[in-house]
Structures are given as structure tokens and as C-alpha cells.
Design goal:
By secondary structure, the chain is mainly α. The protein contains 4 helices and no strands. 0% of the residues are buried.
Length: 70
């Protein structure tokens, strides 16, 4: 499963807002949000080096958020 937006300026479907709605209305957990973000990156049309950088950036961000909470 992925979370995406298609022409957010026209349809109003910005990715952050969609994640917030999922968290609010479906009680999505942080781990589920992280998995959805990784799934979206993996399903994108990035070449392998770019995908690996994107996934690494996601992991670094998640680690920094975890460190800030502790």
C-alpha cells in the first residue's frame, strides 16, 4: 500500500494532510506511517542509487525523530 497525491494544487490532496487524516481517523501508528512512506519510495520510478538514498534519508529522519523524543 502507498500514499500518494495526484496534482495536489488542483485536488487538495497533499501527502502530509493525507497522513494526518490517516493518523486521526484510522489511528495509524508511527510505524505504519513509516512503512507507508517506505512503500511509496519503493514503488516510485527512482533508479536504484536514488531509491537507496531516499530510503536512507527516510531512515535518518526517523532516527532523528526518535532521538528527539528520548
Amino acid at each position: 500500500v502507498t500514499v500518494n497525491s495526484d496534482d495536489p494544487a488542483f485536488f487538495g490532496g497533499y501527502v502530509l494532510a493525507i497522513f494526518q487524516q490517516l493518523a486521526r481517523h484510522l489511528n495509524m501508528t508511527r510505524d505504519q506511517a513509516a512503512r507507508l512512506a517506505a512503500n511509496s519510495l519503493t514503488a516510485s520510478f527512482q533508479d536504484t542509487p536514488s531509491l537507496n538514498r531516499s530510503l536512507s534519508m527516510l531512515q535518518s529522519y526517523l532516527a532523528s525523530v526518535d532521538a528527539a523524543v528520548m
